Amino acid sequence: MIRPLVLSLALVSAIALVVRAEQYKLEPAGAPPAEISPAVAGLLQDKGHKVLAAGGKVWCEVWFAKAEAKGPVTTESDVTWKTMVQGSVIGVIRWPAQGKDRRGQQVKPGVYTLRYGLFPLNGDHQGVAPQRDFLVMSPAAMDQKPEPVGKFDDLMNFSRKVSGTPHPAVLSMWLVESGFEPGLSQAGEHDWALQAAVGDAKISLLLVGTAE
User: Fold this and answer.
1) Cβ neighbour number for residue 114 with a 10 Å cutoff
2) Between the CA of residue 2 and those of 5, 10, 25, what are the distances in Å?
3) Is 14 helix (H, G, I), strand (E, B) or coil?
4) How is 129-165 classified by DSSP, letter by letter?
5) What's the half-sphere exposure (Cβ side, CA atoms, 13 Å) at 185?
6) What is the pTM of this model?
7) For the CA atoms of the chain, what is the radius of gyration?
8) I need a surface site. Which of 57, 88, 119, 175 has the fewest CB within 10 A?
9) pLDDT digits (tens, 9 = 90+) for 133-179
10) Minimal CA–CA distance to 89: which of 120, 66, 119?
């Protein structure tokens, strides 16, 4: 009498996994949005990536930079993108409706720059991710210069305008050194990651899911 119940539960679980796996998909996006400055637009690739949720609703659109801003190899710990200059523009994201950052903070509809950073080793981020790499969202209307934002606090203050909280609005990412597969795929039970090229670098960016 127990075996049919076990099989039934296993079948339900398998169906649920399939449904989740089909929840998000990727389509090409057009040119970078008009809301960004011409200087920032000049850094970006001509075509973007459109992430669709269930029913074909657009979750977000992302445009990545044409090239990576290379600097000296960092000696800091738990960093995957060791040559990337902190504060550099990595891309631009558009949320057509309300979005969420990696912490689950709400992001209003709009266009935001994505700049590279490392979360500080101050004890507040233990267990958030195995790597310290992340992308910081800033309002495109405020963040119009193509040069890296040199001061960490300035970058954080930009991003607090997005989150409306003391914590900046961030997305988790990492450099892919092997097994690169361009496109959108499920990463864990609830997360979805977009793998794409930024110049010669290959990165993975978590666009769906929050840290638990």
Assistant:
1) 24
2) 5, 13, 38
3) helix
4) -SS-EEEEEEETTT----S----HHHHHHHHHHHHSS
5) 10
6) 0.86
7) 18
8) 57
9) 999 999 999 999 999 998 999 999 999 999 999 999 999 999 999 99
10) 66
Q: For residues 61 and 78, what is the distance between their CA atoms, to the nearest angstrom?
A: 28
Residues 177-193: b if buried by 16+ CB within 10 A, e if exposed: eeeeeeebebbeeebbb
Pull the structure tokens for residue 111: 């266009």
Counting runs of H as helices and runs of E as strands, what totals does the chain give?
Answer: 3, 12
| Tokens, residue 120 | 């500080």
CA–CA separation, 97 and 58 (whole Å): 8
Averaged over 33-40, what is the pLDDT? 97
Q: What is d(CA 58, CA 46) in angstroms, rounded to the nearest whole number?
A: 19
Q: Any idea what DSSP says for residue 74?
A: P
Q: Which residue has the tokens 């080793």?
A: 121
d(CA 180, CA 186): 14
Bridge partners of residue 84, in order along the sequence: 70
Please state, as a whole number, how many other Cβ atoms lie within 10 Å of the Cβ of residue 156: 18
